[in-house]
Each structure stands twice: as C-alpha cells, then as structure tokens.
Amino acid sequence: MNKKALLLFSEGLDSILAGKLIASQGIDVVAVRFITPFFGWHWKGREKDFDQYVQEEFGFAAGVIKDITPAYLKMLKAPPHGYGSQFNPCIDCKVLMLKEAKKLMEELEAGFIITGEVVGQRPMSQMKNTLRHIEKAAGLEGLLLRPLSALKLKETLPEKLGIVKREKLLDISGRGRKRQLTLARELGLKKIPSPAGGCLLTDPAIAPRIKRYFELKDGQVTSWEAEALTFGRHFELPGGSWLVLGRNAEENEKLFCLSPKNSVFLRLADIPGPTGLFLSFHEEDLEHAARLVKKYAPKARNLEKVTVKVISNGKAREIYV
Q1: In a domain? residue 201
Q2: What Pfam family does this protein match (any one) (predicted)?
Q3: How many Å apart are CA 262 and CA 71, to the nearest integer?
Q4: In this predicted model, what pLDDT tens digit does every residue of 185-205 receive, in sequence order?
C-alpha cells in the first residue's frame, strides 16, 4: 500500500486536522475538493490556486479540484437515503464523494482515503452505524480512515499494515469542539475555520427554492440552471415561468455568461437595472416579468412607462410596461 492518502477536504476545521494528523506521520496527503454549484464553487477554474493554497497553508503534498456536478444533480433528484432538514442529501452526498475519491486513488497512486468525520457530531450522517454503512456503500471497507475518531472505530487496513500508527490517532466523539480547537493550536493553525461546510442545500433561505425548482422540472436540472438557482431574486410566475433577476452588475453579467444562447433575457432599454433570465419560459408571463424588471430598477420603478428589451438568440424585441 502506497504511503499516500486522499483527503476529502471541505475547508472546515475537522478535515484540516484529519489531514495534518496523517501528514505528521510522514504520509503524503492530497487534499481533494469536490465542487458543485452548491458547495466549493468559488474554486471553479482555480485549480492552481487551490494546489498552492493547501501546500502553503497546511503543508499538504498537493491539492486537486474535482467538479462532480452532473453526477451530483442526478443523485439529488432522488437520493436513496432522503434529505435532511432542508434539501441536503448528506448521506448520499458523502457516498458519492467517496466513490469519486475511490476512482482517483489509482490515478493519483494513493493507498487509502481519509475524512474529518467525527462520531456523533452530526445526527444524520455521522452516527457510528451510519459511518459504517457509508464506508460499505462506497466500496471502501478497510480503506477509509477517520483520524479524529479512529479509536472509536474498527481498525483500518493502513493501520493494520503499520503505515499509520493507530496510537497517534484520536478518539473524539460528540458535538463539542474543545478538543479540535486545542489540537488546532497544538498544530499551529494560523486561522480557525468554521465547522460548517457551507453547503447551500442546508441554507433555509436558498434550499427551498432549489427544492421547488427540482419539483417543477421533475429533477431534470442542468448544471447551468443549478448555478443560476444559487444567486439573484427568483420568481415563480402564474403561467409556469421561472424568472431570475440579478441584484447587481456582477450578478447581471453572471446570468448572461452562464446561460445558453437560446435563453430569454429581459433588460431595460435605456435605464440601468436588473437583467432578467427565464430558467423556464412561457410567453403569457412576459409582461408580468417585465414589470418585475421595472419594479427592481430604482431609476425606473416610479416612471409611468418604460421600454423592456426581450433578447434571445441574439435577436431583440421591445415591450412597454
């Protein structure tokens, strides 16, 4: 077995500590950051930056970014283990990431996988029996090491082979953070990140609209639609259309750049304001949508009439509201 481990890196404290504990035993740790529009998306297209960041900040051997959006959206449609309090499929999310990490093991010549999971920290996905189930479902029995709680769990293959010294691993359990914070200070961490993973599918302000859109589209959601669901103002219109309005110039540009050429856009003709993008479009909702564009443009909302451009496939027409 190679003395190299893949770390499922969430950017949270626990995954950092797990990686540093294993690296301290002379094992090369490769931090793998799986990303989708719902988590880790700020690293999209920044593979070199990520690699440099994990090497310089934490002393890991390397960093790898892996976009799993298509597989994730397919899973999110109907996760076998269901959802958490919002639209978060925590168990199936972890199984998917571990399966993807297993595929990377041969490519990166790694011998085993590590995570920052702690027994009993999260009721849905980190109880002892659930952790065992996840390991089995991912096909990683004996190859998945959880350093922070290893002494509470069955011995893994890298421990049995002496590659990892079990006596240097920990027995943390429960929801408390004191031992992690103490360990962070002992390991000389410069910054203490929050324990949350930052998944938008757990966000009560964003998750409900993502769930609703999935229901309307019967789970047939594309990668660009998934990204568009994570920002802007959203409106489900009476005729069945779904409209997104940019809240600032940056979001306006983002909507325009990520959508396909045949998408339908709305823009005020001569006044600054939000860009409107239909994620789904029905002609009968056009005037309603145009009025929303006017309403959210401070310089237009009090005018008696404005001109709104309807743009698709490079062609434009005008309506007046």
Answers
A1: no
A2: ThiI
A3: 25
A4: 999 898 888 655 589 999 999
